[in-house]
């Protein structure tokens, strides 16, 4: 697990690494303040990454906007088999809608 000190720059740098990655299969950002701003960068990386299978974003302070971006990015990513978005800032009804859009756990 990684701990990001400068949230925006840290997530942006890690997302750039994910874009170029050809071997990493699991990425854990649990309990980091990724927030919606960081989810923008992660969603862009997910659109091009072809090897990441497991993405952990539990307790990452991601809201509805960020979660929607990640879910939309998953439409073009066939490698991901697990995304953990538990304990974020996503209300119950919105969470149900987001879960209905994806077919991974």
Description of the molecule:
This protein has 105 residues and is mainly alpha-helical. The chain has helices spanning 7-20, 35-48, 64-74, 92-101; strands at 26-28, 54-56, 82-84. A 3-stranded parallel β-sheet has the order 1-2-3, with no helix packed on it. Helix 2 (35-48) runs parallel beside helix 3. The longest helix has 14 residues, at 7-20. It starts with 6 loop residues before the first helix and ends with a helix.
Provide a quick synopsis of the model.
The chain is mainly alpha-helical and 105 residues long.
Please write out the topology.
Elements: H1 7-20, E1 26-28, H2 35-48, E2 54-56, H3 64-74, E3 82-84, H4 92-101
Parallel strand pairs: 1-2, 2-3
Name the overall outline. Answer: globular
N-to-C order of helices and strands: HEHEHEH
What is the CA-CA span between the terminal residues?
20 Å
Number of helices: 4
Strand order of the largest sheet: 1-2-3
Given helix and strand content, the structural type is mainly alpha
Largest β sheet strand count, sense and barrel closure: 3 strands, parallel
Poorly predicted residue ranges: none
Beta content comes to 5-15%
According to DSSP, the number of beta strands is 3
Please tell me the overall pLDDT: 88
- Level of helix content? 40-55%
Q: What integer value in Å does the Rg equal? A: 12 Å
Keywords:
105 residues; mainly alpha; three-stranded parallel sheet; globular
């Amino acid at each position: 697990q990684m701990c990001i000190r400068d949230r925006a720059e840290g997530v942006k740098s890690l997302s750039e690494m994910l874009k170029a990655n050809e071997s990493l299969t699991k990425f854990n950002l649990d309990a980091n303040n990724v927030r919606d701003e960081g989810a923008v960068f992660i969603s862009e990386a997910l659109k091009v990454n072809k090897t990441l299978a497991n993405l952990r974003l539990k307790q990452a302070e991601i809201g509805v906007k960020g979660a929607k971006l990640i879910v939309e990015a998953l439409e073009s990513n066939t490698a991901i088999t697990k995304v953990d978005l538990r304990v974020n800032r996503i209300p119950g009804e919105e969470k149900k809608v987001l879960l209905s859009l994806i077919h991974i756990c």
